[in-house]
Known about the structure:
The protein has 508 residues and is mainly α. It contains 19 helices and 3 strands. Strand 1 and strand 2 form a beta hairpin.
Amino acid sequence: MISFPLLTTIVFLPLVGAAGVLALRNRDIGCRYLTIFVMAADLLLVMSLFALNTHQGGIGLPGRWMRIEDFAWITAFGARFTLALDGISLMLILLTAVLGILAVLISWKSVTRHVAAFHFFLLVMQTGVLGVFLSTDLLLFYLFWEAQTIPMLFLIGVWGHDRRIYAAVKFAIFTIGGSLLMLTALLSLYILHGRQSGHYTFALFDLMQTTFHGPVELLLFAAFTLAFAIKVPLLSLHSWLPDAHTEAPTAGSVILAGILLKTGAYALLRFAFPLFPDAARFFTPWLICLGLAGIFYAGWIAFAQKDIKRLIAYSSIAHMGLIIVGVAVWNLMSLSGSLLQMLNHGLTTSALFILIGMLDERLHSRQLSDMGGLWKTAPVWSAFFLFFTLASLGLPGLNNFVGEILILVGVFSVRPWTAVIGFCGLLWTVAYSLHMLHESLWGEPRAQRPQDIPDLTLRELAVLTPLCAAVIWLGLHPGPVLDILQNAASGLMTHGASLAALTPPAFP
């Protein structure tokens, strides 16, 4: 029996903090400290989940939910407030909590206007993302899905760079348009299941029992997948991402790359594939082709970028393309590798965006033509940038290598030529990453700039060091994390992790 709704507290604590930030809106320093306190408290609550489940012997067991919280909600429509935690959700909410704290720290000096509103939107978005990773009632999931989008729209549109309004509007058109399609499909599935069973519900594992006839399943899967693919983003639905990254403040880019892109891949494997398995098998070749095309396309376009932040944005498209290939193949090894790679990408790409934000504060430029020779003038910053770039391109011994090799080996066991093509695509990652390092760190400065660029401060070192430690740990000893993800993936594939297998306590 669950005596305390810990998952609910984790989800809504940032929202409570957001209300507190509004009460302190005239005290900038108070808003910053309150936000960091709330984020840290939420991280401690997430960490307590590891301790609780280890004590109960439930962490990492195949096909088992670690925790379920179920409340009465909108009974007239059959909607319940249901949150459930497995190994996949656990690792993703841990990533969310860590990056939330880092987003506050990196904005400490750079965000100087509307400080209270900035931290309000950060906290509201935190609640939305945590809810997405924990919801198993589809109506509740949809509300959290929308709740994470609106704050990012304001973060880009208010605190972004010169073309922030254009980027924010483009982001809104893509994401809200896809969400409306998903809502239409969700309501259709709700009505279809209700007519078949006489039980109208939004519960995931009840809706998985729906029987489809004709092309209905294909249409519903396409609508769900389109909404999720926009957030990934898959090739042909990606054009909003480089603009959003380029114009967003550093904290916005960190949350966008580290967390929001993962919600699309997570929703695909948590909802779209289990709800519509036959349609998923039908569309698998298309998803694989789009994922592979994204790797090559993004790598090619990255070479042409003069803005280093935009270059890293295109690298995100390439990395997420490989993750989608691993998910689409849907065997245990490739799926486990994709889940691990979600964490890896969240760490390394977030670190690169943080480093570019720090450099932009010093140079007031992100153009490669204004760089060169940074190793001489800012050696500590350069060392971190070299380290995270090597991690991103998949250097053995660092985190991305483990995820990539698991995906490729898993894919090779089912579709050998797909794995070969994917490996060739990864060579582009090496090429544009080395090009970026050469243009920024070495040689002579190619533009007039201050001779003495300040190196990293203690606050900035405090932000980067934990990310560095996590990259090394996941590269050298990924076993504990991989066990959790692999066992959760095993339960997901066999539907053994059904909520129906447990009897959750009924909260009034």
